[in-house]
Amino acid sequence: MFMSTAAWAKSNMWVTSLNIFYNTFESTPSPGATTKHNQTYLGLQAGYIFSNNVYVGAVYNMDTIETSSAIKAKINSLGPTVGYYFENGWFVEGSYLLNATYQQYSSNSDEWNQGTGTQFDIGYIMPVGSAFHVGFQMTSRAIDFKNYNDGTTNNSNISYRLNEVYPMIKLMFIF
To answer: Can you give the pTM of this predicted structure?
Structure first.
């Protein structure tokens, strides 16, 4: 049974959510062999929605990219989040990402670290029960990595910027 108004309307509550994105695609250079790519993006959030619908919390992102050509990449980031949950189910959130890392594994282990950036989410969520909500969001993320390490050398002169926009499914639990 769907509730007619959002559970957070005019109440204080703790919330946690799992945000999920999965994508698979193939790329073929000419000439060359086809490479299959699998992307899994997971975001864990925990926070508090106040009676005025303001959200304060934190996000931890764990992204994995794997290919059939033995290249694997992991992107991790963590940061505080603020947002607003409208009574009609729409929401906006903004996060400042700290201590982000981007690790790539192939013939050697490359890592960009000391990453900072921003993440913005806009979405819609609807109640499925009194404590469980399901929805979607569009996520825009920009992270600047300031240091490169190839396993033997640290180099702060090599930086890397990551810009991403992708849809996610949001599963929210209310306590």
So the answer is: 0.86
